[in-house]
Specification:
heterodimer, A: mainly beta, about 0% helix, about 50% strand, B: mainly beta, 5-stranded antiparallel sheet, 11 strands, about 55% strand, globular
Chain lengths: ~110, ~110
């Protein structure tokens, strides 16, 4: 089954404690991206990657890091999480080098206290 | 600076009638537009897209219209069904420049029985 998986689905952590949210897709997609969804703000793109070792900033990259060492995986790293990073995070992937029709993961709800 | 605007946070439509969701954008360089649908506790799902070289694209009950001079697009759902109740996000990208994608804040559609 074609899918994008994210782990963990729910996470509560404390300020400053490094964390990684994993994202994996099994569709051999080139393009992968991370978004955060906040009430009243919709979906905002954090980082995206057009291929292995190619990443670029989206609209809200501050406080986040990503890496793309393998085509299928695109982890999101929060080196020192802060409460304003409490949000619902989505990973997505799409065929080709552009954000055409993307497949989204189920989301990761992160709470930073 | 909100480049993609969905000015109606919510919309209620009788089952069987037409639902019209609107989206405005400010960046005249956007050349690709997409609509996504999102149910609670799930990731967004791609619905339909349109390139700036077209003014209409149809897929079953869903039609997207693009008015470039007005920088406006709309999604028509005919006839509306109960399963259409969801949040709808409009998104836009400037494919010739980079591969960022900008989402609107979403419109919650309620289909009334």
């Amino acid at each position: 089954e074609a899918q994008v998986t994210q782990n963990p689905r729910y996470l509560i952590t404390v300020t400053g404690k490094k964390l990684t949210v994993t994202c994996s897709q099994n569709m051999n997609h080139e393009y992968m991206s991370w978004y955060r969804q906040d009430p009243g703000l919709g979906l905002r793109q954090i980082y995206y990657s057009m291929n292995v070792e190619v990443t670029d900033k989206g609209d809200v990259p501050e406080g986040y890091k990503v890496s793309r060492k393998e085509k299928r995986n695109f982890p999101l790293i929060l080196e020192s999480p802060s409460p304003n990073q409490t949000s619902l995070y989505f990973c997505a992937s799409s065929w080709g080098l552009t954000p055409y029709e993307q497949y989204f993961g189920p989301g990761t709800r992160l709470t930073v206290t | 600076d909100q480049q993609v605007k969905q000015n109606s946070p919510s919309l209620s439509v009788q089952e069987g009638r037409i639902s019209i969701l609107n989206c405005d954008y400010t960046n005249s360089m956007f050349d690709y537009f997409l609509w996504y649908k999102k149910y609670p506790a799930e990731g967004p799902t791609f619905l339909i897209s349109i390139s700036s070289i077209k003014d209409k694209n149809e897929d079953g009950r869903f039609t997207v219209f693009l008015n470039k001079s007005a920088k406006h697009l709309s999604l028509h759902i005919v006839p509306s069904q109960p399963g259409d109740s969801a949040v709808y996000f409009c998104a836009a990208s400037e494919m010739n420049r980079d591969d960022k994608i900008i989402f609107g804040k979403g419109t919650r559609l309620h289909i009334l029985p």
